[in-house]
Design brief:
With 93 residues, the chain is an all-alpha fold. Helices cover 74% and strands 0% of the residues. It is elongated, with a radius of gyration of 14 Å. It is built from five helices and no strands. It starts with a helix and ends with a helix.
Amino acid sequence: MLLVFVTLAYFFGSIPFGKIIGLRYGVDIQKCGSGNIGFSNCLRILGWKPALLVLLADITKGLFPVFLALHFLPLNQTIFVALSSVVGHIYPV
């Protein structure tokens, strides 16, 4: 069960919401500004509304797997799920 949660948290953390939202606004965010797909570059390039969407989506992709794991796994295993989500965010597929 732990392996399933860790794998899903990694893949969920790998979702590049900054790139997705940028493309929805017709901008390849990686080719503008600093080239980062995070909140700060989205704020500079797209404005505060899309940047806020990126921030909330990035927070949610980290919290959702952890909250789900808390209901099914003990706390010491949930920590691995949280770390997996962070690793997926930093080193996406």
